[in-house]
Design brief:
Radius of gyration: 19 Å
Number of helices: 10
Strand order of the largest sheet: 2-1-3-4
Largest sheet: 4 strands, parallel
CATH topology of the largest domain: Rossmann fold
CATH class of the largest domain: Alpha Beta
Distance between the termini: 12 Å
Strand content: 15-25%
CATH architecture of the largest domain: 3-Layer(aba) Sandwich
Length: 258
């Protein structure tokens, strides 16, 4: 029986971020499951369109599933690249996959990395490993957030970090979601923090990192933190560049009986 793992992420336009983050995470999965064929899909219509303009084709989730059917795969496991089980996951994965459930012998949707409150422990352990802090330094991590459906995953992770005494402060880019910049700033000021490491809580680098988090514009997180009097060093790496983070996808897949 032909078996495949389909790594379905939002996607990224930047070629280096694609290779170093998304492709690297997919390769970690492929190495852990050599008996499966590894394929990818991007759920963002905008990103796929921009890539097509550059002559780069990446399947949508529908295209990838249709291709797997045409190629005779009977068992398919979808591993979402998302950190949280938000609106994108529900609309671009769960709803898209539903019509295909009866077309394969077995079609499994694995979990986003922080779907459940207990998942915060896994993520926190990885963050503590990949972000060694200098003496007196606090970590500011910026995730994506959602414009329509608030997800408590970031707050759950923050609570786990606070309980463990790890000096991280977590916010989101989306201006209509929380924890926003003002909430993070208040935490930093209440603590009396002065030295910061600013980094993305995102699978891949690209526009959000280069513009919203560490961009030259006045409203980037970097410039606003500096304007508030903090000394800030920046990491531009998406989490997908770190093997310890990549292995979280393998851990999610290990929850299933293949």
């Amino acid at each position: 029986m032909k078996k495949a793992i389909l790594f379905a992420s939002f996607g990224v336009i930047n070629e280096q971020a694609r290779k170093k983050c998304i492709d690297a995470a997919a390769q970690q999965i492929e190495a852990a499951y050599p008996e499966f064929t590894l394929r990818q899909a991007y759920t963002s219509v905008f990103i796929r369109k921009k890539l097509a303009e550059q002559g780069v084709h990446v399947d949508s989730l529908t295209e990838a599933l249709d291709r797997l059917l045409a190629d005779g795969f009977a068992e398919v496991v979808i591993q979402p690249g998302y950190l949280t089980a938000g609106e994108e996951y529900e609309k671009k994965v769960l709803q898209v996959v539903e019509p295909y459930q009866q077309k394969f012998d077995r079609l499994v949707i694995s979990r986003p990395l922080m779907e459940r409150p207990a998942d915060g422990a896994d993520m926190l352990a990885v963050l503590q490993e990949i972000f060694p802090l200098e003496a007196g330094e606090d970590l500011v991590l910026v995730g994506h957030g959602s414009p329509h459906q608030h997800n408590p995953a970031y707050e759950n992770l923050q609570a786990d970090a606070d309980k463990a005494g790890f000096p991280v402060h977590i916010g989101v880019i989306e201006p209509t979601d929380t924890p926003d910049f003002a909430a993070v700033l208040a935490r930093l000021q209440d603590k009396g923090a002065k030295e910061l490491l600013l980094a993305p809580l995102l699978l891949s680098g690209g526009a959000h990192v280069n513009e919203d988090i560490a961009g030259e514009e006045e409203d980037s997180w970097l410039n606003r933190l500096q304007a508030a009097g903090f000394s800030v060093r920046v990491s531009l790496k998406g989490l997908g560049e770190y093997p310890a983070f990549q292995k979280l996808y393998v851990k999610r897949l290990q929850e299933w009986d293949f």
